[in-house]
Write a structure and sequence with these properties.
Nucleotidyltransferase, domain 5, 5-stranded mixed sheet, alpha/beta
Length: 273
């Protein structure tokens, strides 16, 4: 039997791609090989995540899996990020949650009323990273339970998972941390372990030309908004779809990847690395 009695599947959802890996096979040294399904973009009035969720549902039904557990990682295409200023007067969790919701609504409009907004634990004097995910997407993932009692164990933005995995490599220096996905770049600036800026942008170039064209503009926007003067230019640590471990062919750029046969390309997204 290919899967264990309770298969643990690693899943990455993108707008036009679905990646599914088997954690049990990885533990048994069978490799990180994953199924990669390239999909059409959603219809104009449909949610951007609809093709990937529909493909995941079909994939599960075709295989007749029972009691599968899913670890789901979301592309930045399906997540909205903001870095919010610390508000010392907001001492109660409900007050802070309300403030974060209001900031998303002010930025994105009434559509944010249908999003689930989460944030990190507030720390005095530190900016607060917060993200929003479509409630309808989360509901559709939970509805997969009707397929062989599938259970969604976790839903995490890929950017969050990748940063948690590699934050030790950055130390407390001033550094850029970027996540490259097909068609997008999400970039943050850290100073002594504290976020100073966080932005995401899209591009239409299928090759590395796309994210390289975005990098200088995002850096300039974040520098300007943060007000931090950094000289010399901090190193840029990158993860995601491209590069190999320790690659320094571009001055100041370091690719973070597992040594010796880890997942590569878009498959990395299913493992959160």
């Amino acid at each position: 039997m290919l899967f264990a009695d309770r298969p643990l599947l690693q899943v990455a959802l993108l707008e036009n791609c679905l990646v599914i890996g088997n954690a049990e096979r990885q533990r048994n040294k069978a490799g990180h090989k994953a199924d990669v399904l390239n999909l059409p973009m959603a219809a104009p009035q449909a949610p951007a995540w609809q093709p990937a969720v529909a493909a995941l549902s079909g994939w599960l039904r075709e295989r007749g899996l029972q009691r599968a557990q899913l670890r789901v990682f979301l592309s930045s295409q399906l997540v909205r990020w903001q870095l919010l200023e610390w508000q010392p007067q907001l001492t109660r969790p409900r007050e802070l949650d309300a403030y974060v919701h209001l900031r998303f609504r002010a930025t994105f409009g009434a559509v944010a009323d249908g999003w689930r907004v989460v944030h990190t634990e507030p720390l005095p004097g530190r900016a607060l990273p917060a993200c929003a995910i479509d409630e309808a997407l989360l509901a559709e993932l939970q509805a997969l339970g009707s397929i062989g009692h599938t259970k969604v164990a976790s839903v995490v933005p890929y950017f969050s998972a990748a940063f948690d995995r590699w934050r030790g490599s950055l130390g407390h220096q001033t550094a850029w941390f970027g996540v490259i996905e097909p068609g997008s770049l999400t970039l943050g600036l850290l100073h002594r372990g504290v976020w100073q800026g966080l932005r995401s942008a899209r591009h239409a170039q299928p090759s590395a030309t796309g994210w390289r064209s975005l990098l200088p503009a995002l850096q300039a926007q974040i520098r300007l908004a943060s007000g931090i003067e950094v000289d010399p230019s901090p190193p840029v640590y990158l993860v995601g779809c491209g590069g190999v471990a320790g690659d320094r062919r571009e001055a100041g750029v370091v690719w973070l990847a597992a040594e010796g046969g880890g997942p590569s390309g878009v498959e990395r997204m299913a493992w959160g690395v």
